[in-house]
Amino acid sequence: MKIAMIGTGYVGLVSGTCFAEFGINVTCVDIDKDKIKRLKKGEVPIYEPGLEDLLERQIKSGRINFTTDLKSAVADADAVFIAVGTPPRVEDGHADLTYVHEAARQVAQAMTGYTVIVTKSTVPVGTAREVEKTIREANPNGDFDVASNPEFLREGAAVNDFMRPDRVIVGTSSERAQKVLQEVYRPLFLNETPIVFTTRESAEIIKYAANAFLATKITFINEIANLCEKANGDVQTVARALGLDGRISPKFLHAGPGYGGSCFPKDTLALAQTGQLLDARQTLVEAVVESNANRQRAMAQKIIDAFGGDVNGKRIGILGTAFKPNTDDVRESPSLVIIPILQEAGADISAYDPAAIEQTKRYITAVDWKKDPYAVADKADALVIITEWNEFRALDLRKISEILKEKRLIDLRNIYKPSEMEALGFHYVSIGRPEVKGQKAVLKEVSAG
Ligand code: UDX
Fold first, then answer.
1. N or C: which terminus of the chain has fewer CB atoms within 10 Å of its end residue's CB?
2. How far apart are CA 311 and CA 108, in angstroms?
3. Which residue among 264, 338, 389 is best mutated to probe the pocket of ligand 1, counting the most ligand atoms within 8 A of its Cβ?
4. What is the chain's percent helix, strand, coil content, to nearest 5?
5. Residue among 154, 323, 390 to mutate when testing ligand 1 (max atoms within 8 A of CB)
6. How many CB atoms neighbour CB 280 within 10 A?
7. In the CATH scheme, what architecture does the domain 209-429 have?
8. Domain boundaries in the chain?
């Protein structure tokens, strides 16, 4: 079995490397010469735990190759996966399919013998059909099928997600294509991973529906957190109790500063666009998109409110700029919305992230970058946790409280307990939980003494 993977971005690289681990001969193709050169040496251009070791093993085994020559990679491949980027179009947020169709045209010219072309990038419903048209036009006599096989990889857990998926979705009505893809996913078949064979259209919709559902779940609990704040509830308890209902499940019910990343924001927007285009408006998803954008901005206001409404001249220390832990990705991260609003309001920002500093610098300037959380806290008027990296979960809070100029901690991920923060005399602001006023805590200590 031989496959070609077009595009060595996040999805292509992880999938290609994992397919090689399955025992398949994989050739990864990219137009970026420099990237291919680095990949050949085993250098992984993205931050993804476990990927570099796996790649090194596959390079040694000879099962994975990298090239810029699409033609040679595709010529003798049984299946060709298209995993190129589908960024949102600036004008309307619709997924830009230019790269997908360009890849399809090149594959059409290069393929020999029966070939299954698989769309792996997240693409709007109807794309596999369009890709088939593109290929047919470019190579009217070609022997091929186009199938849809969306991925569900989470950044930071992508290798594990690929190797142990909850399910694999294969969209095709061709038996020949089904056989080839069954062979590609043989190791997963053997360990009884549910494999859903369906039409291409359903496969394409499944991917968007899954991401939009998860984004909706997060947005739901974020709005419930707002209610808790007004009505003296505790969103942690509410979420836990909701999650105990087997029909709801506890996952993706963590209230926070709003979802970010390269998938949820892009895919919710694209689904809303498709709904409008096909006259089946996704009003719920439209509301989720709006609510999440408002939320990221509201988080900046929450920080300003913790100062009584004015942060001019204040030094605010930020912990975490990545959109979530275990990644250096800052795309659509709440930090990119929050930090500029605080700067605009006159605050001086110092910050630290275990992996994403260089990436953040591409989007945000005038930040005083520090080497660790304590340097960020030193003489700051407040410390703000935006990303729940593990190393922020066990801070020496006593030390932090001593080096902060003002004992103010705004925890946008609820990683600390209000009672502990109260005991330490912090003015502690978190999400969907009663606020702890440091002053009161100190007074209590005094009166107790
Ligand atoms: C997501 C999907 O999980 C994956 O299946 C898909 O293929 C790509 O998009 P990813 O973008 O890597 O993966 O991140 P994920 O772990 O899903 O988190 C997305 C965002 O939601 C992050 O900003 C995270 O902080 C936020 N989130 C997640 C919450 O705010 N609360 C939660 O309970 C869960």
1. C
2. 58
3. 264
4. 45, 15, 40
5. 154
6. 8
7. 3-Layer(aba) Sandwich (3.40)
8. 2-198, 209-429
146 in Cβ contact with 117 (< 8 Å)? yes
Q: CA 93 to CA 75: how far, in whole Å? A: 35
Mean pLDDT of successive 10-residue stretches along the chain, which has 449 residues: 96 97 97 97 92 97 98 97 89 86 98 97 94 98 98 94 97 97 94 95 97 98 98 97 97 98 93 95 98 98 97 98 95 98 98 97 98 98 98 97 97 96 96 82 45
The one catalytic residue among 18, 28, 228, 263: 263
Nearest to 181 by CA among 205, 200, 166, 201: 200
CA separation, residue 183 to residues 29, 180, 190, 366 (Å): 22, 5, 11, 53
**Nearest C-alpha to atom 32 of ligand 1 is from which residue?**
252
- pLDDT tens string 59-88: 999 999 999 999 999 999 999 999 999 887
The protein residue whose alpha carbon is closest to atom 10 in ligand 1 is 154
* Tokens 């393929």 -> residue: 111
Is there a shared CATH topology between the 2-198 domain and the 209-429 domain?
yes
Q: Which pair of structure tokens corresponds to residue 403? A: 């080096």
pLDDT at 310: 98
- What is the structure's pLDDT at 443? 44
Our mutation pick for probing the ligand 1 site, out of 207, 214, 337, 411, counting the most ligand atoms within 8 A of Cβ, is: 214
Nearest residue (by CA) to ligand 1, atom 7, is 152
Strands (E), 216-281: none
Q: What is the rounded distance in angstroms from the CA atom of residue 356 to the CA atom of residue 274?
A: 33
Judge contact between 33 and 215, C-beta under 8 A: no
Q: What is the reported pLDDT for 439?
A: 60
Whether residue 18 lies in the annotated active site: no
CATH class held by domain 2-198: alpha beta
User: What is the CB < 6 Å shell around ligand 1?
Assistant: 151-155, 211, 214, 218, 252-254, 256, 259-261, 263-264, 323-324
